[in-house]
Amino acid sequence: MSLDPLLIDVPERLDGERIVLLAPRAGLGAELAVVITQSLSHLRPWMAWAQQAPSAESAELVVRRMSADFIARRDLCFHVYARKPDGNPGRLLGGTGLHRIDWTVRKFEIGYWIRPEAAGQGFISEAVRLLTVLAFGPLDARRVEIRCDTENTRSRAVAERCGFELEGVLRCDSLAVDGTPRHTAVYARIA
Q: What pTM was estimated for this model as a whole?
């Protein structure tokens, strides 16, 4: 597929059985700031961006940048919502998306986070499956990766549960949020 990424119709909503993924849109900053603040202790060990509580204004700025990147096809972020019985999005649970996009190779990396009280209930696995279908379907992916700290056993379990194969461990390839060397597990699926 040689279609310019800007011409690809990427859905702004993906429906799962128990979740709804929605592309970021202006006006969600205050709600996102609250969820991140409530999740800091859960996210802090793994996410460099989750070290301090964001303000509503700083979170709104992030949401608007995410929206612009989505439109430009530079980064395809989604917010994860619990699905109400009527199919509408309910409570904001976390975030996910297709990141580090290489349109030439058609390679994507799935990232994710979830508020602590929703962890361990399969919501992120469902989100990963929805994004994998999107990547290998309309986006014509050749490769989809999940990368995580080797110590992040929950994140590794998601990758394995969703059929991603461990290809290797990159030793001392980055620094953890506390500045210590970090090893990254690289999981992938190919077309």
A: 0.93
